[in-house]
From TrEMBL:
Molecular function terms, GO-annotated: zinc ion binding
Protein name as it appears in the record: GRF-type domain-containing protein
Source organism: Heracleum sosnowskyi
Coiled-coil intervals, chain numbering: none
Highest taxon above the source species: Eukaryota
Keywords attached to this entry: Membrane, Metal-binding, Transmembrane, Transmembrane helix, Zinc, Zinc-finger
Domain GRF-type: 4-42
Ranges that cross the membrane: 94-113
Length: 116
C-alpha cells in the first residue's frame, strides 16, 4: 500500500538484499537521494536458519556472476588481441597497393617520355 511520506512523495515497497535484511520487504521514500529518508521494514526478522540460507545462496550467486564476468573479460581480451592482429595485417596490403600504384604510374610516365 503506497502512501505519501513527509516529503510529499509516494512510498515504494521493495525487497532488501543486504546481508542483514536479505529477503525482507520494506517501504521507503521513492526519492532515494533527496527525499526524507523514510524507511520501514514490513516483514518480521527472519529465523536464523532462513537468514543463513538466503545469505549463502546470495553469496553463491555472486561467486557465479563474478566467475562469469571473469570469463567474459577473458574472451573479450582474446578477441581484442585478434582484432589488433587483423588490423595490423590489413595495413600491410595497403602499403603494397600504394607501392604498386606508384610503380604503375612511374611506368606510364616513363613509357610516355620514351615515345617522345
Amino acid at each position: 500500500m503506497a502512501f505519501k511520506c513527509s516529503c510529499g512523495r509516494f512510498t515504494v515497497q521493495k525487497m532488501a538484499w543486504t546481508e542483514k535484511n536479505a529477503g525482507r520487504r520494506f517501504i521507503a521514500c521513492d526519492d532515494r537521494y533527496g527525499g526524507c529518508g523514510y524507511f520501514e521494514l514490513v516483514d518480521p526478522p527472519l529465523a536464523t536458519r532462513e537468514h543463513t540460507v538466503i545469505n549463502r545462496l546470495l553469496n553463491r550467486i555472486k561467486v557465479m556472476e563474478d566467475g562469469h564476468m571473469r570469463g567474459i573479460e577473458e574472451i573479450k581480451g582474446h578477441y581484442e588481441k585478434e582484432i589488433e592482429k587483423l588490423q595490423q595485417k590489413a595495413v600491410i596490403p595497403l602499403y603494397v597497393y600504394v607501392i604498386f600504384v606508384c610503380f604503375v604510374l612511374f611506368m606510364v610516365v616513363n613509357a610516355g617520355s620514351n615515345e617522345k
